[in-house]
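Predict structure. Chain length: 296.
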Amino acid sequence: MKGLVLEIQKFSVHDGPGIRTTVFLKGCPLNCLWCHNPESISPFPEIAYDEQKCRLCGNCMREYPECHQLIDGKHVFIRPKSCADRLPFCPADAFARLGEWRSVDEVIETVLRDKAYYDRSGGGLTISGGEPMLQYEFTAALLRAAKQNKLNTCLDTSGFAGFEKYKSLLDCVDIFLYDIKETDAARHGEYTGVSNKRILENLQLIDAAGGKTILRCPIIPGCNDRPGHFESIAAIANRLRNAQQIDIMAFHPWGRGKAKRIGRDYKLGNLPAVKEELADQWVRQLAILTKIPVER
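Prediction complete.
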């Protein structure tokens, strides 16, 4: 069994307890306006192009002239419907393939190299994305392999999958890193492209079945930074028996440059990163409303 892996990030300290290795998978059914990892949305391999690195050497134009042209003295990358198999040699490393098919054994072998760090820090493996449940069979096999090797596991998910799939993973997920992107149904559809009905229902069902969660709440100025949203997050958290923490994830435009490199439009324009003072204010605002720890 193989999965489409975007990246394996070692020494991650923001994706669950302790020192972790985070495996990012490709493919997501949501299309959030503020997506930090737009290169993870497509369920297929892609090619990223960084125009700032291009030296106009012309090698890619000779190798794949149907995709690379010189127009008005500027290199133009014309993306075909499927171009991941047309990765040109570039001496300036202006191109990169996003997404490699990896087996469970290959990924676990990489993760286990740092087991000593996990054991000392209480860390382990986190599977993220994209949405890992879009590659459910691979995600399940990877989690079970991790448990066979006595690793702590976290699953970072939007909650947008059938509950039966989540139920089948309860015995091999120590903590669900569960996204609450928007509590208002209409706004959630506008901002992410999908309804939040299934997401909120799954959260309640996972909690009732004993699944531990950390609620991860991206807060974006002008979208979901209103008091009513904070009140709704607190109301949801206060109904849960197994919620461990709420994480406020203040907006940062990391996705802007990434979107440009894969030919996607960035829908939030030049919205700046949230200042620390404002993010701290949000934490205090939410902490007043719930007894669950609030972090950022």
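Summary: DSSP finds ten helices and 13 strands in the chain.
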